Amino acid sequence: MESYLMKKGGLSWKKRFFVLEGDVSPPRIAYYVKEADEKIRGELEINSETRVSDLANKTNGFQVITSKKALVMYADSEDLRAQWKASVSAVISKLNKEDQSRDARSGYHIFQCSGNEFEMEEKYELIKAVGHGAYGVVISVTNKEQAGTGDNEQVAVKKIKDAFDDLVDAKRIVREIRLLRHFNHDNIIRIVDLPVPDKVDFDDIYIVTDLMETDLHKVIYSRQPLSNDHSQYFLYQMLCALKYLHSTSVLHRDLKPSNILLNANCDLKLCDFGLSRGLSGEDGGQDNNLTEYVVTRWYRAPEIMLSCQEYSKAIDVWSLGCIFGEMLLRKPMFPGNDYIHQLKLITQFIGTPTAEDIWFVTNEKARRFMLGLPSAPPADLHKHFPGADAGACDLLRQMLILDPSGRISVDDALAHEYLAPVRDKALETVAEKEIDWGEIEDCELTKGNLQKIIWEDVGMYHKGAREEMKAAA
């Protein structure tokens, strides 16, 4: 297909000669200043996810849209527009058929969702796209082998495409997989399956987990009522998860509402452990790899922002306090624009600290900043949270104490009177053993080393998978 069309560029329309090249790989629409020109002026590559649609505000106008860009055009006649739309649509249809007919591994099938190709075992049947996470697209699928059993019947699949393009990000993914494989708690997201990669030197990673319907961020900012009972039960489950997590000598370090998943029956699970780190020592002291570049700023403990070289389990308690307050307010507690603004908001709420309050701050510049802040009394929590339960205000106050050594512990928070109506000590379990970080944190950061660790984890779900793939290489 080829003809002259008007092409929109910026605010103007220019006449160009367009050629649809459907037989090249990848197919494309190319355009020139005039028909006889050899110099191409621009092009748009077509893939199976390309869309063609009319322009509502332009007679005989249409556009061809890909995930990266679009061509906006109009034809001299309705017939010419229809011919172009039909020709481009035919190329897209052909690409879709080629995608569907591409050979998959035995026992696997290929499907498309949200512009991404998934190659998975035939037992997994697509339901819908769920969303996009930090490192990939997430879909929900049915496990046909479990249909009707109620056990892992519907699960979530996250695909991380080209996972090793950034080795630092890849290490976070590897770290999270290793942690989740070892965790065993109802309030922490669980890996159901690690599908076998398609080759030894693989690029994409698939992770199959529990399927959750929403997250706490969406609930807080929805019109859905969030009662005191909800706040109690959600906070209790988060604390149960932290008790278990800390018993493995692991800090989450990135607790925020979007990392807390929920189902309609109010079951709650923590997720996203890519920034987690281990603790050393019985007192929960810090290991040498901890840095201040953790936690979304609004939920970041003050000792991190004050350049403390050592911090403890108390940083997760602070983050949980910020989340608890956000549930009560239905808005963020400390929405700082930068860390200076963040610290000012915090001290306006908890009161200006004394030198004794910041004994743990060893950075002299940070100490002078904190002691130089205008004098302010602690906020009256009952006025700040009108209608909130008195017990909720008391527990929140203890979770948001500036001095980490004075901040309430997870065990004491679980025992607080505010949570008595929902407490079940049988749910407050601890891990049987700590996490061994050595292999992940000590290995040289290379694609091959990270792949090796993932193959070992895949082998826990698919016996002999690593050996089989090595033999097939």
Automatic annotation (TrEMBL):
Q: Has UniProt tagged this entry with the keyword Magnesium?
A: yes
Ranges for domain Protein kinase = 124-419
> Which keywords has UniProt assigned to this entry?
ATP-binding, Kinase, Magnesium, Nucleotide-binding, Serine/threonine-protein kinase, Transferase
Write down the required cofactor(s): Mg(2+)
Specify the signal sequence span.
none
Binding locations of ATP: K159
* Activity modulation notes: Activated by threonine and tyrosine phosphorylation.
- Which family does the record assign? Belongs to the protein kinase superfamily. Ser/Thr protein kinase family. MAP kinase subfamily.
**Name of this protein:** Mitogen-activated protein kinase
Organism in which the protein naturally occurs: Tetraparma gracilis
